[in-house]
Design goal:
- Homotrimer.
- Pathway: Lipid metabolism; fatty acid beta-oxidation.
- One of its GO terms (biological process) is fatty acid beta-oxidation.
- Keywords: Acetylation, Fatty acid metabolism, Isomerase, Lipid metabolism, Mitochondrion, Transit peptide.
- The structure is a single chain.
- With 288 residues, the protein is α/β, with parallel strands linked by helices.
- The chain has one domain: 2-enoyl-CoA Hydratase, Chain A, domain 1 (Alpha-Beta Complex).
- The protein contains 10 helices and 10 strands.
- α2 packs parallel to α3 and α5 packs across α9.
- It is globular, with a radius of gyration of 18 Å.
- The two termini are 35 Å apart.
- The structure holds ligand LP6JUW53.
- The site of ligand LP6JUW53 has 29 residues, from α3, α4, α5, α9 and α10.
């Protein structure tokens, strides 16, 4: 029954006339992810950690496993998206950063770094279909993809500075590679969240879609262009473009993780995280 509902929903939601569709459930069993392949061997990876796809270690390690599997099975493309029509991902889970043991924070941060390396360096083409807000870690996931399509009227960006910690170097570099040095500096030092329109203007996203279905049409168009490109040539070109960041993270990753763990553990940062979480709860209470 569950399979049937998934297939039917996907057929309705994702598929346009341009892609004939034959869903098959991915071999892995995941708690927070749904992975479906279409007949073009494109994997549609949907994050489904309700309510807002907060990135905890478990969701991140599921994404990491899927990426390994897609690499091994030579998929021809991947679309990363959210089950929600309001939030793509709300970023790293505060519950694993607030009053947590260093080991817990370390696991969280090293798992996101592992995902960054695999997603940013993946041999297959990747698209983020951003169906809602994408702050912080949510923005990072989309930045690791090659192409970003975002639905109207949401916000995206890296607001970590507002939480009292600096943006890790590898993440700064991701942003610089996408929107250029000047725009990245302005955005990161102010923790700016961009509306969908602003994000397009600055180059943080590549296209705007009016809804999920049209975002998927655009994703298919992006992926289809690679049908005539030899995959190996495409892969090596992508690697050349991305080598510097990937090398940096594989050499200095452990240092970045430890720096981030010690930043997060600072009493001042812990206070700010507590205040931020309380503020989210208050906003919710006042809006009800
Ligand atoms: C070396 C490399 C390392 C790291 C690189 C990347 C670093 C990333 C740092 C981060 O990602 S820190 C997380 C930053 N995230 C945010 O600032 C976003 C916070 N959330 C929001 O602004 C909103 O939730 C939203 C705009 C995404 C969605 O708003 P709305 O639809 O109104 O939902 P609620 O705010 O009511 O949230 C529902 C529920 O979820 C809880 N929640 C939301 N975000 C988080 C989170 N990041 N961690 C834990 N919990 C979160 C929120 O408190 C609500 O909980 P209830 O119990 O009240 O239902």
């Amino acid at each position: 029954m569950y399979r049937y509902v998934c297939k039917t929903m996907l057929r309705r939601l994702f598929l346009s006339k341009k892609v004939s569709y034959q869903a098959r459930l991915f071999s892995g069993n995941f708690r927070y992810l749904e992975v479906l392949n279409n007949e073009n061997n494109v994997a549609i990876v949907t994050m489904k950690r309700a309510p807002v796809n907060t990135l905890n270690s478990e969701l991140l390690s599921e994404i990491s496993s899927v990426l390994t599997n897609l690499d091994e099975t030579k998929c021809s493309g991947m679309v990363l998206t959210s089950f929600s029509d309001k939030v793509f991902s709300s970023g790293l889970d505060f519950n694993e950063m607030y009053e947590s043991r260093p080991a817990t924070i370390r696991t969280l941060v090293s798992t996101i770094l592992e995902v960054i390396i695999k997603l940013y360096g993946s041999p297959f083409p990747t698209v983020a279909v951003i169906t809602g807000h994408a702050p912080s870690g949510g923005c990072v996931l989309s930045l690791c993809c090659e192409y970003r399509i975002m639905v109207q009227n949401f916000q995206i960006g890296l607001n970590v500075v507002k939480l009292g910690y600096s943006t890790p170097l590898s993440i700064v570099q991701l942003m610089v590679n996408t929107i250029g040095h000047r725009n990245a500096e302005l955005a990161l030092t102010s923790g700016r969240l961009f509306t969908t329109n602003e994000a397009l203007r600055v180059g943080l996203i590549d296209e705007i879609a009016k809804d999920r279905a049209s975002a998927f049409d655009k994703a298919n168009d992006f992926l289809n262009q690679f049908k005539v490109i030899p995959p190996i040539a495409r892969h090596f070109t992508k690697q050349s473009m991305r080598r510097a960041l990937l090398q940096d993270v594989s050499i200095n990753g452990k240092i970045y993780v430890e720096d981030f763990v010690s930043l997060i553990s600072r009493p001042k940062v812990q206070e700010l995280i507590a205040a931020y979480m309380a503020n989210m709860k208050n906003k919710k209470k006042n809006s009800n």
